[in-house]
Design goal:
single chain; alpha/beta; D-Maltodextrin-Binding Protein, domain 2; 12 strands; about 15% strand; globular
């Protein structure tokens, strides 16, 4: 048989069998039969991904998506960087650390446009100590936070703003913080929802909450392999379209959306109602993301979280905005 016949036969096989893992040029391509795995934290911050999966928006775009749950976004990112999963949702702080350690990948979208007071300080109330400066400087306090993520960056800025110099920072798992606060083993916690909300509910009138919505808005981002994205731009567009559909559905159907998120997170209606408004569930790429990355990089160097010789990368090189620009251009403000 001649060469033209064999090329035609191979191309026909590719079309019949769906996208393969490698095409005849050796490029990595999407295999529709093999699930595209996305690592997520079991948190309402991942609601867009959960709704897109549950309502079949990924499937409508011809995508076979499997969600893999992790206890924290930073662990999902670690699994992605190790090659265990295809994509990951995490806060923007772990992305900062990973990029400064030399890892190269793309952020294709935020899965929340912004958060409002989603990270905050919850403390055991004491009489006449109504401001952060008064409370934390009245005596040495034990303040628990989650090291390596947005809450630690938040508390760094919180302590600088309110001139807090003598707090003892304690590293705890987010799920352990409300109990630690209730028991009095720590004086305060700095953490994201729903754990901040749980602490407020456990302490009731004994709690005082300190927040500053102008100081920090934790952003959750979807990361993917750089080479894979460049070789499969149409798949990234399908993912973005799925998330845009999810965002529109959530806006029009908040009750059903909360029920979907409750099924994933096992959070009750009262909790979801209490924290839902702290998130803006929209795909986006905004200047706040770049601003935080650069601030977090300086913080990482200042506090020794990365080697002193570590270079601050050009974070614009970590953003893939082509897909979001095509699907929803108004969502890109970088």
């Amino acid at each position: 048989m001649d060469k033209k016949y064999w090329i035609f036969a191979i191309m026909t096989l590719v079309i019949i069998s769906g996208c393969t893992e490698s095409d005849i040029t050796g490029k990595t391509v999407y295999n529709a039969e093999k699930p595209l795995t996305i690592g997520i934290q079991n948190s309402p911050a991942n609601a867009l991904i959960m709704v897109a999966k549950d309502k079949g928006f990924f499937q409508q775009e011809g995508l076979n998506v499997e969600l893999v749950e992790f206890t924290g976004g930073k662990y999902a990112l670690q699994a992605f960087l190790s090659g265990s999963i295809d994509m990951a949702v995490s806060g923007e702080v772990p992305v900062t650390f990973s990029s400064m350690q030399g890892n190269e990948f793309y952020v294709i979208t935020q899965v929340v446009e912004r958060t409002t007071n989603e990270v905050r300080v919850v403390a055991i109330k004491e009489p006449d100590l109504d401001t952060p400066h008064e409370y934390f400087n009245a005596k040495r306090r034990k303040l628990a936070t989650s090291v390596g993520g947005g809450p630690e960056f938040y508390i760094y800025n919180f302590m600088k703003k309110y001139n807090i110099t003598d707090a003892e920072l304690v590293n705890l798992k987010p799920e352990d913080m409300p109990v630690a606060l209730e028991s009095g083993s720590v004086d305060a916690i700095a953490i994201f929802d729903p754990h901040a909300y749980f602490a407020e509910q456990k302490l009731g009138s004994k709690a005082v909450t300190f927040w500053d919505e102008t100081m920090y808005s934790e952003l959750y981002v979807l990361s993917a392999d750089r080479d894979w994205v460049n070789q499969n731009p149409e798949i990234i567009e399908r993912i973005i379209r799925s998330l845009v559909k999810a965002s529109e559905f959530m806006k029009e159907n908040p009750a059903e959306s909360k029920a979907i998120v409750a099924n994933y997170t096992k959070l009750d209606k009262k909790t979801l109602d209490g924290i839902w408004g702290n998130f803006e569930f929209k795909p986006a790429l905004n200047n706040l993301l770049l601003e935080y990355w650069n601030l977090e990089a300086e913080w990482a160097k200042e506090t020794g979280k990365v080697k002193n010789e570590a270079q601050i990368p050009d974070f614009k090189a970590y953003i893939y905005k082509d897909a979001l620009l095509k699907v929803k251009p108004e969502a890109v403000t970088i």
